[in-house]
Amino acid sequence: MNTPDIHPTAFVHPDARLGANTRVGAFSQIHAGVILGGNSQVGSYCELGYANGLEKTSTLEIGANSLIRSHSVFYLGSRFGPGLSTGHRVTIRENTQAGKDVRIGTLSDIQGDCQIGEHCRLHSNVHVGKHSQIDRFAWIFPYVVLTNDPTPPSEIRLGVHVGEYAVVATMSVLLPGVSIGPHALVGAGSVVRRDVSPHSLVAGNPARFIRPVKEIRHPHTGAPMYPWPRHFHHGYPDSVRAQWQTEFGAQDTPPKSSP
Questions:
Q1: Domain ranges of the chain
Q2: What fold is seen in the domain 5-216?
Q3: 165 CB-contact burial (10 Å; exposed 0-12 / middle 13-18 / buried 19+)
Q4: How far apart are CA 59 and CA 6, in angstroms?
Q5: pLDDT one-digit tens code per residue, 53-69
């Protein structure tokens, strides 16, 4: 198959551009201004290119080899690199710029005017407020909220910044304007009110410094667990693993739990 495979019930605007070998599922809508790279799949009941008048450009670009699962909505004005993968019922609002190989879990929403680096991983039910910045290789786990209004409700927007390789564990809340340093770890259920230093573990409500992440050990083997690219490689391309070998001394075999 070289030409797009469009389900008979789907609507694709004549001004949309679909690459070779793309598939569009039942009852999906692809509006004018959408540019979808080749070898991509759009599930059923999706809407790509929704316009709300806040978009800075009249296009929505999604790179090749992307997978957009059912009931997801993408607004105009955004751009995603190749290899995007979403869960179901994901919402991406206007003016979001993202690198390659980004994964966004089911029921997550990105509220627009956001920057997302390459290889970022957002799990299910993540809320990313406007003007957030998430740097490359960051991990955001389920039910995390990145807020942006310091005096709600107001017109003030102070986006959160999550540094590269940082990890924000499940059900944490990052308050407006905070910065999470590179390679930092935010413990589950934390409320982060102040900036977090690089390579630091913080936890609690309010979140407080616990220890440097380099002191965190595997519960059974005692092996150091951070920086995590030394031992966790699942889902990353060979080129990234080779980079990590040089940068972190990545291990071929990760530390395992005792039986």
A1: 5-216, 217-259
A2: UDP N-Acetylglucosamine Acyltransferase; domain 1 (2.160.10)
A3: buried
A4: 20
A5: 999 999 999 999 999 99
